[in-house]
Amino acid sequence: MKEFEKTKLNRIKRGANRAVYDTETINSILDAGFIAQVGYIYDGYPISIPMAYTRKDDKIYLHGSTANRMLKAILESGKTSINVMHLDGLVIARSGLHHSVNYRSVTLFGELKEIIEDSEKSKLLGDIVDQMIPNHWETLRPMHQKELDRTIVVEFTITSASAKIRAKGVNDEPEDYELPYWAGVIPVKQVLEAPIPDKGYPSTINIPQHIETHYNKFK
């Protein structure tokens, strides 16, 4: 099993028993979502913002406007960190101190470059859309050149990473287990509600099959 080398940068110290470094687990967490928190420094302030992404092998791709200050900042620095997290459960303990959550979280470190070639940019933008809804890009109108011209696509190569996972029940003090307080886990999942068509032409036609399939998978 391939693992990321444990370094001063990616090693998990707090809760080390929850640390995972193998690429298969890390990639599965990345592929389960499409929104990442991307960190950067602007005017001396550390900032993180959510960004849509797609993963291809050891690379993450982001996109935004050519005026996007975050993308400009990370391209100038040449490196950044990215976090993806999924909330899986609320852990309700007998004391406030032991309340927790079940989760899957990945933190990535890496280097960046801008994708310049239009055909490659367009392909990657399609991959980002398809990470949100599979098989969707090919059902859309082609991008106008002016749209492509004002869009930055950034390639983030993962050089180091680690995951942290909690997937268990309550961890109360031994003497508290006989106390008359409810404790347990409330599972959390993200669901989709029925698609609502936009005004105009969409309101007169059936919902596309690939959208119905995606909705039925997560409803």
Automatic annotation (TrEMBL):
Transmembrane segments: none annotated. Pfam families: Pyridox_ox_2. It comes from the Bacteria. This is Nitroimidazol reductase NimA-like FMN-containing flavoprotein (Pyridoxamine 5'-phosphate oxidase superfamily). It comes from Tenacibaculum skagerrakense.
